[in-house]
Design brief:
The chain is α/β, with parallel strands linked by helices and 273 residues long. The protein contains ten helices and twelve strands. A hairpin with a 2-residue loop joins strand 1 and strand 2.
Length: 273
């Protein structure tokens, strides 16, 4: 976390979400503080991705409200999220596979550009200055995520782990206040997971971006998170620090199915039971 305990940037209050006869989230309440890394964990079907989709404006809850940066979001849709300062990555890669790394990340700068497409086509001086500024910002992000050597590579030629890093870079290009990461380490080997974990910490600490992530690798979660929220069948069953969550009896029985968990993240990505 990049500072001490600070004001909440995000609050979910009494959120209900249903699809047909299936209730996905039930009176869900939790808060994310400014500057922290918050992990949302729970078994498959617990409702984690639905929470991210609500925060991103893809789903609209039947009840409850979302408060972001002190304002209740009314008539909120996904198209509004970037303007508010909310960016995300997805479980499945959503990149332009036949474009270069640089061009993929540049697409994340659309809202930051001050000049029109016509100005760019006509190569007007101010438009050229703006284009240079956007490229400079992207180069800074590529450097932060150690992607400079791949900047001109076509994305489809890169490894899966690198493509996930490019998607992370594109989300950062929008300069978000809140970054939503939906299983950023899914499908990766141990080394790739450790690399992404380090980049998430770097983003949080150097850029001061608040992170809310869904992640199944509990050792990584325990290692990098300031705050963990645990869901089970659409309900919150625990909410606290990694140390608190490790010892929480309801988490251990309902989520892990064990009596005690000892996590040693620096040496293994597995939970020791």
């Amino acid at each position: 976390m990049s500072g001490g305990i600070q004001q909440e940037i995000l609050q979910l209050q009494d959120i209900d979400l249903s699809f047909a006869a299936s209730q996905v989230l039930k009176k869900l309440n939790f808060q994310v503080r400014t500057g922290e890394i918050c992990a949302l964990i729970g078994p498959n079907g617990a409702g984690k991705s639905s929470v991210i989709n609500i925060i991103n404006g893809i789903y609209r809850p039947q009840a409850g409200q979302i408060i972001f940066a002190g304002k209740a979001l009314k008539q909120y849709k996904a198209k509004h999220a970037p303007y508010l300062g909310i960016a995300r990555t997805f479980q499945n890669l959503a990149l332009f596979k036949h474009m270069s790394v640089l061009d993929n990340v540049l697409t994340g700068r659309v809202l930051k550009s001050r000049y029109s497409v016509l100005g760019a086509i006509l190569r007007l001086p101010r438009s050229k200055q703006d284009e240079d500024l956007q490229r400079l910002k992207v180069e800074e992000i590529l450097k932060l995520l150690n992607l400079q050597q791949y900047r001109d590579k076509v994305v489809s030629t890169l490894s899966y782990g690198l493509q996930k890093r490019v998607e992370l870079a594109r989300a950062l290009a929008a300069e978000p206040k809140l970054l939503l990461l939906d299983e950023p380490m899914a499908g990766m080997n141990h080394e790739e997971k450790q690399s992404i974990a380090e980049f998430v910490k770097k983003i949080n600490q150097r850029l001061g971006i608040t992170v809310l992530m869904i992640e199944h690798d509990l050792a990584v979660v325990m290692e990098i998170s300031d705050h963990i929220v645990v869901l089970d069948y659409g309900k919150k069953i625990a909410d606290g620090t990694p140390q608190h969550i490790q010892q929480h009896p309801e988490v251990l029985s309902a989520y892990l199915g064990v009596q005690r968990v000892d996590v040693t993240p620096s040496h293994s990505n597995e939970l020791k039971i």
